[in-house]
Prior knowledge:
Layout: E1 2-7, E2 12-15, E3 33-39, E4 45-51, H1 54-73, H2 82-96, H3 100-115, H4 125-133, E5 136-138, E6 141-145, H5 148-167, H6 195-206, H7 211-223, H8 227-231, E7 238-239, E8 244-247, E9 255-258, H9 261-272, H10 295-304, H11 314-326, H12 332-339, H13 344-347, H14 351-375
Antiparallel strand pairs: 1-2, 1-3, 3-4, 5-6, 7-8, 8-9
Amino acid sequence: MAILIYCSKCNLFYSRKNNKCSNCGLSLTNSKKFRINVSTPNGSRITKTVEGNLTLARRVEAKIKTEVMQQKHLGIRKAPLLSEIWEKYAIWAKENKKSWRHDIGRWKKHVSPHIKGKRMDKIYPSDIEIIIKKMIKDPDNMKMKHAPATKKQVLVLIRRVYNWAIQLEYYTGSNPAKKIQPPKVQNQVTECLNKDEIEKLLNTLELWPNQLGALLVKFSLYTGLRQDEIMGLEWKDVDLENGFISLFDPKGKPATLPLNNEALKIIYEAEKIKPFEGCMYIFPNQFGERRVSFYKIWSRIRDAAGLSKTFRFHGLRHTFASYLASSGEVDLYTLQKLLNHQSPQMTQRYAHLLDETLRRGAGVADKVFNNINAEL
Length: 376
């Protein structure tokens, strides 16, 4: 272990015992550059160059020595880069999470630009706050902020990645995202198109030039399936003869759902216009590949149909569920299965529509007995 002193004229380092350069004779007493060499237990050497004065060089040397001793005796190791852990997590998510594509998209867009070169222990709650506050929909329009729900999803994702790294002992520090209060989200707001809006949407889809895209939207409206589920549908997942479709969950919970007549018609139409014979996907992109995003196409269709700009594609799923619930012909358990909800709590938001249907049914008794009473 040593601190070497620098000759600026010859670009050489010497022991501090030397007062002058043996090559050019330049005095080294006022040198402002030092090289620190510290040996590690495994025989390697840590070298660092410091510009300043000897006092600073000694402080840096002491810090390096402390880190080396901690690694040797306490097993303390350098925290990994968050970007490296994310790459490992993304591989795991593809095998275990249904929403892994959304996670990758959110991380790439909102998190990656802020964490380049940062180790997990050097990212603080204030850094997470900045990431959440800077979330915008359109880089060309800084006023277009994301909804609280989207911000919460990004915060939850960062927290989950840290927890995953801690659980697998890639990282032994604290989770900075745990200290951030998530944005308040009104979960009970349910988007639903009225009958006039549905008619406008269907009329727009009939004339839409990208018919595969139009069929994808119609299929969502008639089945209530999630966007990612529809984009991932393959021909092998469909039993046209018996009218069933199979959904595969990465968590190992496959579901088989019946298709109504309109949904079957849509699939037959999609088969007629698939990009090429042997195409795997029912609703592929123009190249026959799995769609990665549908946002731009949906935005154009939504605007052409005159729907609210805040109406999301996911609102088609809510529309499907709301009309079924208010029909009086579908109970909550059946609705849960059709929506492929893992728990009844997720379907509970539609319960009030069932209650209203029951109330209307009970109201029929008023009319019946009032009419009888009037005749007496």
